[in-house]
Amino acid sequence: MTSDSHFENVVFRYRSIDALLGEHRELERQTVYFAPPEYLNDPMEGLRQVYWRGDRITWLNLLRHYIICMHNRFFEALLTEDTERLAPNTIAVFQSLDNFPTPIAKSLCEACIAAVEAGDLHAALLDLLASAERNISFSELQRLLRTVHIDWLVAVHAVFAERNLVPPMEGYVPDPSGLVNVLRALQTTIPKLQDQFSTIGIDVLNEIQQHMAEEMTLLSATQNADVLNPKRESIVFEFTSEYLKNLLKLVYPPWYVACFSARHDNAAMWSYYADNHRGCCLVFRRQQTDDGVTLRLNGPSGYGTRGTFRSNQNMPLDPVRYTAQEQRIEFFTNIGRLPLDPILRNWFRDDDGNTSPLAEHLNQERQEAWRSGYWENFTPPLLRKLPDWQHEEEFRIVISDILGLHDSHEGRTYTYDYDTLDGIIFGINTSLSDKVRIMRILEKKLQSRTVTEPFKLFQAHYSARSGRIEAHHLSLIERT
Prior knowledge:
alpha+beta, 5-stranded mixed β-sheet
């Protein structure tokens, strides 16, 4: 029979048979994989509401950074077949004029910057952003950059053509005067609208305009479907949104999670995570330490003379909060992935050496307090999911990758020992042959177990009496 006493101080991890016994052989290799956010089931996970509040210097540098990335993307496109889509995550947001591989490459990019910055469209957009004494949302910035993107792309193409890297565009004479007038009008009217309708009203207006822009993009793509190819689509229609998403890499390092649950009896989780009840649920013993609840795992912890070394670690096991509330974070004052000098030089100083007042947090006397707050804000969004998922009662271990220890599948694969694994629950539909395969692996693995508590096996079944899934203890085949 089921007894909650079997499951004190434990967490559960639902797994499919393919994960346990297939290519990755998680049960035999005793592995726990930390997944990147794009592999998680909720696209809202880890979402931060990023906004921009800059001055003329920081906005000038952001627009320059956009041109640098556009130049790199254009060059990447020259080396790509028309039938290939440019990978969304390869936009080089860590590139600056400081670190081009050759003087020729730097000269080409500088020429692209000069060509764009010489135009009235660049001046109009910079004036609009620099005069905005308010928060600029992700969607508004995306819309504004899309407004200028085609004209700037034409300017970059012209620079490449001047150097005989691409053929010149025939029969197209850009006339940005209409867009310049639009941006100048927005610079005048938005403050008046803000006074009349408040910031919330401006946000609603921006959302409406964003939806209209997305519809216009779809319409344009449809009308040009005959000449549109995956590469061109990447450069013309997708670059702006992909740039802004990649730009957020400059704020926080990559993160990965291993997911557990406080429940072993949820039918939806058995169906979704354990292959329609054909898989299993692993029972892990959690530990209470002075730092909170942890799970002992072995994984990458640093670099040594022979490369990456691994060690046992008591890793924080944190409960997920189920809320629709998002964390708000300002971009310019939270660039945390770059060394101090490049941050100052490429984001907070202009060509004349003037430093933006927004760089005060980088002063020596304020750096420690800023860094402390920066890391305090890192984890909470990663432990948040929408209320729709609260039935999971999820626990997570989150790792960040500021040192590059986890940028490979191996670097995100941790191991556990069988002193930490307390038992396994077979699913309602786990086949007899799969149970036998699991039992044979356990016969070898449990020989090294040193804890006195027996390793327990359970069979999940639906109880009509309780109306829920219960775990029946298989006491006749208990392992020690």
